[in-house]
Amino acid sequence: MPAPLALRWTVHAVNQLAALAEYISLDSPLYAEQTVERIVARLDQARVQPHSGRVVPEFLREDLRELVEPPYRIVYRIRADAVEVLAIVHGRQDVRERL
User: Are 65 and 53 in contact (CB under 8 A)?
Assistant: First the structure.
């Protein structure tokens, strides 16, 4: 099995994750922390098996994949040396507007 790829976050994705954590923390700081941890942990799958995420249906590009950590879609791009996290989108949002 190949070595896991590096994980790189875009500023956009970091800002989205921070915004959702801030929003959730208004009701429950503990749940906000747990949600962020679940999303970050889910990305280990992308690092180890980058093609295991499904192709993002709105774009149909082999290099754009997503993992679902309900209710969020974690959109990433497969690069030669890394998995690049592009967006963290709530499942009810239009990923084309949030990417």
Answer: yes
